[in-house]
Write a structure and sequence with these properties.
three-stranded antiparallel β-sheet, alpha/beta, 8 strands, five-stranded parallel β-sheet, binds adenosine monophosphate, binds adenosine-5'-diphosphate, Rossmann fold, 213 residues
């Protein structure tokens, strides 16, 4: 099963993608996580991506498409995957579509996690992430058992640089301009399913499971 998660930054794509990956035993692939891992390791890709990410801008398609295609070509993706944060532009979606068509394959579901802009700033300002294992929390809605410490691996939780209020507004504008058109794109392909992302995390997941089957 090949699934795409759509939605504004902070809508809960990553939270749901991890739960989907666990239940359906497919890899969770987040281009944002791949860029952050590269930034942490100081690679050339990480340095390039940081220039854009820190400003709330999208990393250019050429860089993003290459890392995504490399990742989905790996062995663990044979039976499917859930993409979180890719595609974010129409050209990215077109490349994915073409590559899958070449393999006689296609995306099965595009899940749009719908959360209005007014909730997004709150979601992102409360987000805390573990840079070691990738777990995500929210200081009010989904708090860790011990403040500031990851439940999974005991590492310190941090606020993402691009979750600061100045950057959040930019990311939302970029979302509306460049990513939201994908909703029509996948509606036209008849694979778009929208869920109400303002519900509690488990309820959103139940709605997604009833779509995926
Ligand atoms: P995205 O991957 O779309 O950017 P995340 O999954 O990281 O979003 O979620 C953004 C923030 O909102 C995180 O702090 C997360 O813990 C929190 N969150 C996710 N889903 C919900 C939900 N259904 N209700 C409340 N908070 C949520
Ligand atoms: P995310 O972790 O999905 O919120 O992504 C964080 C940041 O990484 C984004 O704001 C972009 O700067 C960059 N990024 C992640 N995925 C993509 C993508 N598919 N295309 C362009 N930039 C991306």
């Amino acid at each position: 099963m090949k699934i795409i998660m759509l939605g504004a930054p902070g809508a809960g794509k990553g939270t749901q993608a991890k739960m989907i990956a666990d239940k359906y035993k497919i890899p969770h692939i987040s281009t944002g996580d791949i860029f952050r891992a590269n930034m942490k390791n100081g690679t050339e890709l990480g340095l390039k991506a940081k220039e854009y990410m820190d400003k709330g801008l999208l990393v250019p398609d050429e860089l993003t498409v290459e890392i995504l295609l490399d990742r989905v070509a790996q062995d663990d993706c044979k039976d499917g995957y859930v993409l979180d944060g890719f595609p974010r532009t129409i050209p990215q979606a077109d490349v994915l579509d073409k590559e899958l068509t070449k393999l006689g394959d296609k995306v099965d579901f595009a899940i749009n996690v719908d959360v209005p802009d007014e909730n997004i700033v709150r979601r992102m300002s409360g987000r805390r992430a573990c840079l070691k294992c990738g777990a995500t929390y929210h200081i009010e809605h989904i708090p860790p058992k011990k403040e500031g410490i990851c439940d999974n691996c005991g590492s310190e939780l941090v606020q993402r640089e691009d979750d600061k209020p100045e950057t959040v507004q930019n990311r939302l504008s970029v979302y509306h301009e460049q990513t939201q058109p994908l909703i029509d794109y996948y509606t036209n392909k008849q694979i778009l399913k929208t869920v109400d992302g303002t519900k509690d995390m488990q309820e959103v997941f139940n709605d997604i499971v009833s779509i995926l089957g």
